[in-house]
Amino acid sequence: MLTFGGAWSNHIYATAAAAKYFGFNSIGIIRGEKHTPLNATLSFAEKGGMKLHYISRTEYRQKNESHYLQTLKQQFGDVYILPEGGSNTLGLQGCEEIIDEISNEIKQPFDIICCASGTGATLAGLIATLKSEQFAIGFSALKDGAFLSKDIESFLQNKKMAAISTAKNWRIEDNYHFGGYAKINDDLIHFMQQFQLSYDFSLDAVYTGKMFYGLFDLIKKKTFKPNSTIVAIHSGGLQGNKGFNL
């Protein structure tokens, strides 16, 4: 299996772990130059058997173009190519199971569900199974994350779910990226530290820390109706904190 990701990609981390567990080979196409020592994410992937191949950011932008994918197949042989973030039809199907799993766990209806968004695949899977009275918010981990809305609509239309897409019972919240992907500041670190002390629950600086910061800020601003039940998904990524000495 060959897939794509940045230096802090949870998807690269998870794919390497799955490949090792299930006994297949994996290749990670990594955006940007190699830096040593490797960070916690890439170190884990490499130790787990994933072959890391670094490409320029310019070349990385071609990751969804058919001619470039064909070049990769010629270079690496008979590989199954999984898009960045696992964002294909099968990936969305997996994410569609999240709401049923959560509903069975909390055993009560909810009004709003939130997740951190990188490629938008998780959010698209959630949207696909929302009830009409429910709403989903994806907190972008990237600067200028508004483009995610187009990507999510494309995911949904590819699944022939245009009616859900146009219903707009979801949105991207792109005001809490803290300067961009893997960018942090003292406010975010302080929030994460206080969150840990208050709830004995760790967040990561790349994804979930930004989501919970944004969610708490929106609650403070009385964005939601009184007595709303809000579900926030912790999507992992704690290994990334080692790169920030957190």
Automatic annotation (TrEMBL):
Tagged with keyword S-adenosyl-L-methionine: no
Signal sequence, renumbered to the chain: none
All copies of domain Tryptophan synthase beta chain-like PALP, residue ranges: 9-236
Pfam families: PALP
Cofactor: pyridoxal 5'-phosphate
UniProt keyword annotations, A-Z: Pyridoxal phosphate
Entries under PANTHER family matching the protein: 1-AMINOCYCLOPROPANE-1-CARBOXYLATE DEAMINASE-RELATED
Lineage of source species: unclassified sequences, metagenomes, ecological metagenomes
Keyword RNA-binding part of the UniProt annotation: no
Protein name: Pyridoxal phosphate-dependent deaminase, putative
Family of this protein: Belongs to the ACC deaminase/D-cysteine desulfhydrase family.
Alphabetized GO MF terms: D-cysteine desulfhydrase activity
Cited InterPro entries: ACCD_DCysDesulf (IPR027278), TrpB-like_PALP (IPR001926), TrpB-like_PALP_sf (IPR036052)
Organism whose genome encodes this protein: hydrothermal vent metagenome
